[in-house]
Amino acid sequence: MTSYVKLGKSDVSVYPIGLGANAVGGHNIYPNMLDEEVGKEVVRAAINNGIHMIDTAYGYGPKRSEELIGEVMKEFRRDEIVLATKASQKNVDGKVVMDNSPSFLRQAVDEALTRLQTDYIDLFYIHFPDEDTPKAEAVGVLNDLKDAGKIRAIGVSNFSLEQLKDANQDGYVDVIQSEYNLLNRSAEDTYFPYTSEHNITFIPYFPLESGLLAGKYDENSTFQDIRARRPNFQGEKYKENIAKVQQLKDIAIPYEEEVANIVLAWYLTQSSVDAIIPGAKRPEQVKINKRAAEITLKDSDIKAIDDIFNN
Length: 311
Hints:
The chain is α/β, with parallel strands linked by helices. The protein has a single domain (13-214, 260-295), classed as TIM Barrel (Alpha-Beta Barrel). 36% of the residues lie in helices and 15% in strands. The strands form 3 sheets. Strands 3-4-5-8-9-10-11 form a 7-stranded parallel β-sheet. A two-stranded antiparallel sheet has the order 1-2. Helix 1 links the parallel strand 3 (19-20) and strand 4. Helix 1 packs across helix 2 and helix 1 (36-48) packs parallel to helix 10. It starts with a strand and ends with a helix. The relative contact order is 0.14.
């Protein structure tokens, strides 16, 4: 039985596999994902199968992901769910700008509570840094909201290492979320030494590089959404990546598991990576993702995967 893990220094415990919910109501990210009832079924499937950390954000929709999750929340006991959400974006004269000011963050938390139909948020992130607000000041107001019972754990997302250090001056940061996957491993050098030393959980986004590391594509696959703009899906780089993923398929065979789950299991062997939030567009994907936390990779396979993606 896979044990739960604590997020950083907080008292929030989670199953190591969560649900990244940017496809639930995230019409601005996945324009073809218009069936909101399917999105709600994905959330239900996660909770019913023991994946209780649901990761959303104001920016998914915008707002709509939080609203749909809030509707599903009413069907379950609140203590069955660990809600994570994020905010930093606001519209100014028709443009999206980032705001980490204390007044904005207070308002953002209150508005998120309304959309999610709850009286507390388990993990609240500053989604993106702004240019002006001292990060320790921004996190300080989140700590005030934690003391007030509105949030339980504090996160930052898309912060540079220096911004993370600034934010964590008083030791308040529990989680950082940033990009990390086998095709983008820079976090191992930039973040992991610091997060390990300061007991900060690192939660990667794009853990499967938008499906590329799931073993579902070949050289002839084409993409019409956000993936088409990502370098790993373009030209010769894409072909090289497909060849690497093919080697993962060979490693997965003895485990009788999906390639995606082998990849997710590998992340959980890395320092500071306590939890992962793969996305899902269908309920059955959620059930498959959950198994990743139950896989024990052999040391030789951990090294083999490391070697494949270090070249």
